[in-house]
Write a structure and sequence with these properties.
Blueprint: E1 3-8, H1 10-13, H2 17-24, H3 33-49, E2 52-65, E3 70-73, E4 76-78, H4 81-88, E5 93-100, H5 104-114, H6 118-149, E6 153-158, H7 170-175, E7 185-186, E8 192-193, E9 197-205, H8 224-230
Antiparallel strand pairs: 1-2, 2-3, 2-5, 3-4, 5-9, 6-9, 7-8
Length: 232
């Protein structure tokens, strides 16, 4: 089985104040100096504390069920629903991926909340999200290099909890990666711990395409992938 794990240096994320301001919702030049300074402080703290990790493992596809919009991998049936199914249905294998910003960023956010500093807590939360998504981008690019060298292509990445895919299906996904390098644990309700973590599928094959996220087909407004699409 093709598998790789990455301990990602914070400097490789190339995060900066402007990027975090944009993630918060500011346009260029709109942010107040106080906000910029606070973001800078949070980024410096994250640089010294965060243990950023990502990994993938490639599994052959057992089969697809067009009626159920599901895919079977290692005997487990994933009901990925219409949007995700449409992107991966021509795959011959699937990369399961995990990425995490580590637990430190969540701890800092909770501490700030407890101290009544809601703004700092919010900025830690946004920075944590940007860390884990950028880590996933790095992981995905490394996977793409390997797959393209073998004459195949990859799809975009898709996660339980988005595009109609039930978040509870993360329990199945983690059954395939019980010894995950990222040290991510699941709660009974399928939430990840550390909270700033993501998981999901990337399709692999000769006849698939890397498509933009099909957000027009989905009514989930507060979606990380909708944000990605709006910035491309």
């Amino acid at each position: 089985m093709l598998r790789a794990a990455f301990q990602i240096d914070f400097s490789d994320l190339k995060l900066n104040v402007s990027q975090i301001e944009k993630a918060i919702g500011y346009k260029d030049g709109e942010s107040h100096e106080t906000i910029s300074e606070l973001i800078h402080k949070v980024l410096q703290k994250a640089k010294s504390e965060c243990q950023v990790k990502a990994e993938y493992a490639v599994f052959p596809v057992d089969g697809f069920n067009n009626d159920e919009k599901s895919v079977q991998i290692s005997g487990l049936v994933f009901n990925v629903k219409k949007i995700v199914y449409g992107q991966i249905k021509k795959s011959d294998s699937v990369a399961l991926f995990l990425a995490t910003a580590g637990e430190e960023i969540g701890i800092r956010s909770r501490e700030a909340t407890k101290d009544g500093d809601i703004l700092t807590a919010y900025i830690y939360d946004v920075v944590g999200s940007e860390i884990v998504e950028t880590a996933a981008d790095i992981m995905q690019n490394k996977l793409k290099e390997v797959i393209v060298s073998g004459g195949k292509k990859i799809t975009n990445r898709y996660s339980p909890g988005y595009c109609g895919w039930d978040v509870a299906e993360q329990h199945k996904l983690f059954r395939l990666m019980p010894d995950n390098f990222c040290k991510i644990r699941l709660t009974p309700s399928a939430l990840m711990d550390p909270v700033k973590s993501i998981s999901g599928f990337i399709g692999i094959g000769e006849h698939i395409r890397y498509n933009p996220y099909t957000c027009r087909l989905c009514d989930m407004k507060d979606c990380i992938y909708r944000k990605v699409r709006s910035q491309t």
